[in-house]
């Protein structure tokens, strides 16, 4: 059983306090929705977990492994992530992106890259340039890359953005399948999509997080479900100073 623990993590950027997290625990088999208004700090928190930003204080650990400079490589092998797309990958071919990823993680390249693409329903040539793919196809490709090193934790920042209805269904099915032996954390502003897949939700506002609640707990406590939980926490939060 994998556990991701975030303990007393703070982060400030340019002198502004962006995060002040007390305590969060994620366990495998769970699909966690991290929701909150624009600028709440969701991406910043997830970037701290993925080693892309360094917190000012606090611990982030997977089981007994604490994230720090020495453990960074081993820690990051346990995580697959998809963040907002950057056009810096547009000039690479699909094969080049996959090769880079496999090199970074020290993995042996498969005989056929196409198997990895088929996992996410992508029927394209590995020679195709990433810049020539549609937004939704790139989203699928990035998901394929994120799961290719069989991580224990999958972090998806706005995974449904830009997907057509079939892409949304495929992504939800994949998330459910992958959650059987992983922790999956999703941010999304689409509560309808989240309600279809998540087991638990956490609300973020002004850099702080609510307690984690299961969907059953949320529906019992709030007549309007996730939306009620969301507004209730936002209304209770004081600004960081
Ligand atoms: N590189 C940066 N430099 C300065 N400020 C930043 C930087 N990254 C994030 N911030 C600030 O941190 C705060 C939290 O941003 P973050 O992107 O984490 O929010 P979010 O909850 O993911 O928002 P959204 O729902 O819009 O994606 C915002 O006020 C943002 O302006």
From TrEMBL:
Q: Which SMART domains match?
A: AAA (SM00382)
The ABC transporter domain, residue ranges: 4-231
PROSITE patterns noted in UniProt: ABC_TRANSPORTER_1 (PS00211), ABC_TRANSPORTER_2 (PS50893)
Q: State the source organism's domain of life.
A: Bacteria
CDD domains cross-referenced by the UniProt entry? ABC_DR_subfamily_A
UniProt keywords, alphabetically: ATP-binding, Nucleotide-binding, Transport
Q: Name one molecular function that GO assigns to this entry.
A: ATP hydrolysis activity
Q: Which InterPro entries match?
A: AAA+_ATPase, ABC_transporter-like_ATP-bd, ABC_transporter-like_CS, ABC_Transporter_VariousFunc, P-loop_NTPase
Q: What is this protein called?
A: ABC transporter ATP-binding protein
> What is the organism field in this record?
Secundilactobacillus kimchicus JCM 15530
């Amino acid at each position: 059983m994998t556990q991701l623990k975030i303990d007393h993590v703070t982060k400030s950027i340019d002198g502004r306090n962006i995060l002040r997290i007390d305590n969060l625990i994620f366990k495998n088999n769970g699909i966690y929705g991290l929701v909150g208004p624009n600028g709440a700090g969701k991406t910043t928190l997830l970037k701290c977990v993925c080693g892309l930003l360094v917190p000012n204080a606090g611990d982030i650990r997977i089981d007994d492994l604490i994230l720090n400079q020495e453990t960074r490589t081993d820690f990051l092998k346990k995580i697959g992530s998809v963040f907002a797309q950057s056009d810096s990958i547009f000039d690479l071919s699909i094969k080049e992106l996959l090769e880079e990823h496999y090199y970074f993680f020290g993995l042996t390249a498969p005989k056929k890259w196409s198997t990895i693409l088929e996992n996410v329903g992508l029927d394209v040539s590995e020679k195709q340039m990433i810049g020539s793919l549609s937004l939704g196809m790139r989203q699928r490709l990035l998901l394929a890359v994120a799961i290719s090193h069989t991580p224990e934790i999958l972090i998806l920042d706005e995974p449904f953005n830009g997907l057509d209805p079939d892409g949304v269904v495929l992504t939800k099915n994949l998330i459910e399948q992958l959650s059987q032996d992983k922790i999956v954390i999703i941010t999304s502003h689409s509560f309808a999509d989240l309600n279809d897949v998540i087991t638990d939700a956490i609300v973020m506002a002004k850099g702080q997080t609510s307690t984690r609640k299961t969907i059953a707990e949320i529906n019992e406590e709030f007549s309007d479900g996730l939306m009620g939980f969301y507004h209730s926490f936002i209304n209770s939060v004081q600004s960081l100073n």
